[in-house]
Structures are given as C-alpha cells and as structure tokens.
Design a protein that fits this description.
It is a single chain. The chain is mainly beta. 4% of the residues lie in helices and 48% in strands. The protein has one helix at residues 80-87, and strands spanning 22-24, 30-37, 41-47, 50-55, 65-71, 75-76, 99-110, 113-122, 125-134, 140-141, 146-158, 180-193. It has an eight-stranded antiparallel barrel. Strand 2 and strand 3 form a beta hairpin. The longest helix has 8 residues, at 80-87. The chain starts with 21 loop residues before the first strand and ends with a strand. 28% of the residues are buried.
Length: 195
C-alpha cells in the first residue's frame, strides 16, 4: 500500500498537464510499513516493486481516483531470514497472494490535506481503509521538462483483519509482533512534459 491523494495539486498544475494520467516514479517512491517487535522496537520494511496511478476529474478534484499495485514477493525488511518468514504462509503467503491492491472510492478534503478512502485487498481479503495524505501543493519542473510532485500518505491496519494472525506470546507478557501495521507511503508522480 500505498501511499496517495494528489487532488490538492490539480488546481496548480499547468492546463497542459491536467488531462493526463499520472504514474508513480519507482526510482523516487516508496511503499513501506512498520510494526512493533516484542512491544519494544519498531521494525520497518518496504516493497521494492509497486506502481501507483492517479486520475482525476478536472472539474471536481475530489472525484479523482488513485490505484496502487504491490508485488508482495518484493518485500524487503533488510534481513534475509525475516524476509523469508514474512513471505511464507505465516504472513504474506506470496505464492498464493502475489499482489496487494488499493483502489480509491472517495477523496475528501481534510484540515491538513486529504482523506483517501479505498478498498485494500490484502491476503485475499478486501476491506475499506482511509489514508491521510499531505502535500505542499507545489509541483516542480524536472530537468527533463516534466512536472513532478510528491505526496506523503499514512494509515493503519490490523493484519488480523486480513487473516494474518501469526504471533507468539512473550514470557513476560505481550506478543512478539504487533497486530497493528503502520503504512508509510512517499510517492513521486510525474506529469507529461508540458507543450
């Protein structure tokens, strides 16, 4: 998951860029997550292969739509043994569920950005989630001449809601891995080169 709402920038983009579908730049975008380990520390990971696409309604930016498609086998927690376990049926079960997808169903303006609600399909289960998205609303012109802008989106899910409930109880109380997963998305979208 993604992060992911860039409706805030639509009014500031050049007219020549307003009619195009925007795609995330894989070299400058990240789809990450964080969980608590042993109730003590935060362990982070990312998915190295994912795409996100943004379409919008020029007359009403809140009618824009965004999608994301994540390759579960591309998970990277910076520890090979842990990656192997997370890919197993105990967690992602990547052979059975090779993709995580997000499709927005509603975008609303909030006090500090936008609320992006959509259907998250993970581990064969689809549930509605809401992401908080922020942007400074200032697209930049890249050296290649295209308009580029970024968004940071965050959210939280419970992995048990999606049928991922593997855990171990600790002798002193608590569990090995938190049920709550924090989602952290930083996306750079590129608009076509202005004519």
């Amino acid at each position: 998951m993604t992060k992911i709402a860039f409706a805030a920038l639509l009014a500031t983009l050049p007219l020549s860029a307003r009619a195009a579908t925007l795609n995330s730049d894989p070299a400058h975008s990240t789809a990450g997550f964080a969980v608590k380990h042993m109730m003590l520390t935060t362990v982070r990971g990312e998915f190295d292969k994912f795409t996100s696409t943004l379409d919008w309604n020029d007359a009403d930016p809140t009618k824009s739509t965004v999608t994301a498609d994540i390759d579960t086998a591309s998970i990277d927690t910076h520890q090979e043994g842990r990656d192997k376990h997370v890919k197993s049926p105990d967690f992602l079960d990547v052979e059975k569920f090779p993709k995580i997808t997000f499709k927005s169903t509603k975008i609303e303006k909030s006090s500090d950005g936008y609320k992006v609600t959509g259907d998250l399909t993970f581990h064969g289960v689809t549930k509605s989630i809401t992401l908080d998205a922020q942007t400074d609303g200032k697209p930049r012109k890249s050296p290649m001449g295209s308009m580029v802008y970024g968004v940071a989106a965050t959210g939280k899910i419970k992995r048990s809601d999606f049928g991922v409930s593997w855990n171990k109880n600790l002798d002193g109380g608590g569990v090995l891995i938190s049920d709550e997963v924090a989602l952290e998305l930083n996306l750079e979208y590129g608009a076509p080169k202005a004519k």
